[in-house]
Fold:
Amino acid sequence: MQCNSVATMLGAYLDGELLPDQTAVIQEHLGGCIQCSSEIAEMARLQRSLRSARGHFAPSAEFRRKVQKQMSSPKRRSWLIWSMPVGVAFATILLTALVWTGHARRSAAFAELADLHVNALSSTNLVDVVSTDRHTVKPWFQGKIPFSFNLPEFSGTDYTLVGGRMVYFHQQPGAQLIVSMHQHKISVLIFQRSVDLGRAFSEPAGVDRGTSFGIEGWQSQQLRFVIVSDADPAGIDNLARLLKLANE
Amino acid sequence: MDPEFFEMLAMPLFDQLYNLAHWLTGDRTDAEDLVQETYAKALKGFKSFEEGTNMRAWMFKILRNTFMTSRTGLKVQNTVPMEDEFDRVDLATHNITPESLLLQLENSQSVMNALSELPVPYREMILLSDMEELSYKEIAEVLAVPIGTVMSRLSRGRKMLRQALLADSSGRSTHAV
Structure:
């Protein structure tokens, strides 16, 4: 056997990556070839020396702390979820206080929509139908609301469907879907077109400075949609886009 | 996705990832940026990590892809011609290994210096194989190349390394004389 034909296989032999019959071929060749056996001995020495590349560079303690902190900040947020009742109660008090201090410029409709969101979050049962499956959530509303709507596919997006509940706004029934994005909860409120959503609808997107809740509303055929959340505006916007596509 | 679970799996790899990043970038600040970005991306994409698969190889892959899209990585891609065809340098060029080369092969400082001089496509092969002891299959997965490419590039990388050490050793002996 030619040395050149085994040359590329020597490394694989050293690494134990050859099939048994290939290994046998190489071993037989090495037994009779001084060049290749000297070659493999060199390779083995080099490989042994290369092990010291491991741990050659060590991260500073300061840098480790920095990354550790970066890792654990989402953990603190998840801790907030566990303390949700306290947090939500506090948020509700804050929201109530803000409503109380009277921002005349904010319409009552917006406050009510935000209240629907906060009410759901502070409720002991966040949703009446618990399911991440849109094919379970949508039929649940059948017979409960006088209209139907479409839900987009959330898998593969940042959003997860948590479930749905019924709500009333100005004595009109509507659907409230709870969608989570990372640790944020988002309310999607769906009403019939005839329902007057006031300013919440006249200003399609924005953040209410008083409460910091983001809100986005739009109309699709006979339905009116409003999204309320503390999530970032881009997050709200993307969800709105998904819903618009599903209800075109 | 559970960040605590992620932290539990990913933080033990911190030293290894940093070491690999430093070997790739050759610079502390760049290595820190690379590791930090790797952890951020991995946490974000942790959903796609399949439990039971190799977390280490998965993190290496993210780190390596992040490196390749970094400023240094792009420069590497642009300047180093990728030769996946193993050039058949005649192995029988030296029958007897010079004593000086044997010494160099065992001198880890010389080996480390030669390794850091190696072009990235070969350096990363040797780092993943000889340093991290990943299997060819795992390396192929991390680098997204066929196993045949792993074999030929690794073989060429090791040869280049030995040639560098040989040049180094003969340079030294001349110098000593």
